[in-house]
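LAB NOTEBOOK - FOLDING QUEUE
OPERATOR: T.R.
BATCH SIZE: 2
PURPOSE: Compare the predicted structure-token outputs for two unrelated chains run back to back under identical settings.
PRIORITY: normal
REVIEWER: second-year student, initials M.K.

ITEM 1
FIELD SEQUENCE / FIELD STRUCTURE:
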Amino acid sequence: NNDNDSDIDIVNILSYDNYVVSSVNVKAEAIYDMYDEKKTIDYSKAENAGYSWIITDADGNLMNFSDVKEKDVVSVAKSADGEILRGVVNTEKAVGTLVSVSDFSDDAKVVIGNVEYLVHASYLRNNALPQVGSTVTALLDFEGKIAGFDKTVTTAGYGYFIKQYENEDGLLEQLPSWNF
């Protein structure tokens, strides 16, 4: 409302596209997405075209390109012509047991531990949610929504440690064993 007539004259819509970082090429200023190998953020292309861009953390503090790491989530706002304006980097993760999943047509809600999270539709289009009861690491965007899951699986195992030795008579003897 820039002319005082109660009509809205300008609407600024800022939407973000999430990239879950699989790798970063600092020299080329490129960030590669974990879920779509064709999806790349190319900051040098924007610079060469004369566009300005910034990278910040979730609190708005300026970051260096080299600070972006694998499994960070970069939420990118682009101008209408598709060039990058701003990247917001979030390193926060939600770790715990996946307690429940509620699927909807465009998105899903999951409960990890005792906290409910929305899962971005962009993740759901091409990826399945982890199984209920599994231990998960959810990768969060700056709004606290799940942009992806860390696929690294850690398993705990167990076994027995048994020590045998040969006694003076040539017979095998066993020492006490331990469980671990």
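ITEM 2
FIELD SEQUENCE / FIELD STRUCTURE:
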Amino acid sequence: SERPMFDPRRLLWLPLALIGLPATSLAQGGSLAIETNRFYSEQGRTLVEGAVAIPYTLMTFQRDGETLRARANVEVIVEKAGGESVYNTSHEITAEAFNEAMAASDRVSTIETFAIYAPAGEYTTKARVTDRTSGRSFEVSNPLIVPATPPLISDVLMANQVRKDVRLQEGAYLPYLIG
């Protein structure tokens, strides 16, 4: 049987093809995600817990001793329907990978969480992650509606797991109060 011959000149086109691609397409299928859950109380305040999933493929890892590390800034913004910012937090994170395969995997992410108490209204949750090494930024946003009266079916009923009697250390978890 005949096998096609490999032509090394084809490799010359690879760098040119990569230069023309936007930075996000080099992330190999990883995309930033933001999720929120609402927990209603009888006091008229709704606890909104959110999580930003940051795939390792969106960050640039560099060797640091025995491991690989990537640094990024994470910003979370919650805005009212009119665009008024009611919550804004930003901090730097460091992600660690044990080897190159872990750093390049689209199945590995770091999770950053936030929590606020929100009155009834329409909001938009936004997350922006900026890789400190490359300067690339990635953004995602989702609408968030907090009804004036709790719905008949809570977000908790749609969860795939509920843990009872979870005790938090005093002062370890303080949601931000808006409104």
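REVIEWER COMMENT (ITEM 2): Residues 6 and 12 are 13 Å apart (CA to CA).
FOLLOW-UP: none requested
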